Amino acid sequence: MPIYEYECNSCHFHFERKQRFDAKPVAICPKCQGKAQRIFHSTPIIFKGSGFYTTDNRKGGVTEPVKGEEESPGGGKRGRKQK
Known about the structure:
By secondary structure, this protein is mainly β. It has a domain of 37 residues. Helix content is 0%, strand content 23%. It has no helices and five strands. Strands 2-1-3 form a three-stranded antiparallel beta sheet, with no helix packed on it. A two-stranded antiparallel sheet has the order 4-5.
């Protein structure tokens, strides 16, 4: 059974209830008897497999520098030299 989180609108008391999926939500705060509502949280995203990270190997091997840019001695890129 899932655990649902609630918050009271009057006293802002947070509480949890273990309920079935088909059970009605709790409408009354156990602390002050005020109106309570269920809090919804975002779902986490889990990336599995290859291709999601910059450290993964890409098809084609090493990429070539963009035209007009050359690699600097430190490994970075720099633009064309101005005359």
